[in-house]
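Most newcomers find our protein records easier to grasp once they have seen one. To make this concrete, we reproduce a full record directly below:

…
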Amino acid sequence: MQHVDWHQYQDIYKDNHHHIVGAIKVGRRIDSPQLNNKRDILVYLPPSYDQQIRRYPVLYMHDGQNLFDNATSFAGEWGVDETMESLSRELGLEAIVVGIPNMGTQRLAEYSPFVDLHLGGGNGRAYITFIADTLKPLIDTTFRTLPNKIHTGIMGSSMGGLISLYAFFQRPKIFGFAGVMSPSLWFAQRGIYDFVEEAEFNQGRIYLDAGTREMGGSPRTQQQRARSRRYYASVRRMKGILIRKGYRPLHNLLHIEEKWAGHSETAWARRLPQAIRFFLEQ
């Protein structure tokens, strides 16, 4: 297993533009033999981590640079650190969150499990293998985790939502819950539908959501409204597939459709606490 130097977040991001809440560690240049690249990994630790010897559930999240710090984000942060601190304080719900930054121009390829005729991609399986076989063992040996599948989840939005849904069914012995926010179900000729239908049932929890204005803000044209209706209809279709597979709404499947919400970090941050509660309140 590779040696990794773990640093305090503030020691890496020193200027006043950076702001986080709580304790976040940064693992520098972690190697992915599956993808032939290296990236920093962010690990949020719960408030009680240094005061107790307990072990914690782990949530792996994509687009790691957008999760904690507005200064590193593409279009605003999710406020994952603030959300986790609040859930700990108010409800006693705690977990380790592993933020996996995307690789810029490689993002689409890594987050796509299938090849799209027009956009390419298709490195999603290798990316999930990196998380499951390289990153997870590293996290489990470095931090006090609950390593079994019931306490291991994966989550993302847009293409990150697509790859999270894929990972849940592709590695059922690893992931016991998945957060699928505003997923790009259209990618690769909608190949994810057949994949999920044919996959074996994975005993676990799925959070699935969409906004009703994913495809355009307000004011909008008639064409934009029609595109948005088609989008959340596609998410409803996936919900139907999951129900037919045996997932029970409000039990192990939570589907949220947020009125007026668009396709943005702000919307995902707003829905994040409900998703985390669904995963951890067991």
In short: The first strand starts at residue 6 and ends at 8. Helices lie at 9-12, 80-91, 107-110, 124-142, 159-170, 187-198, 222-245, 265-280.
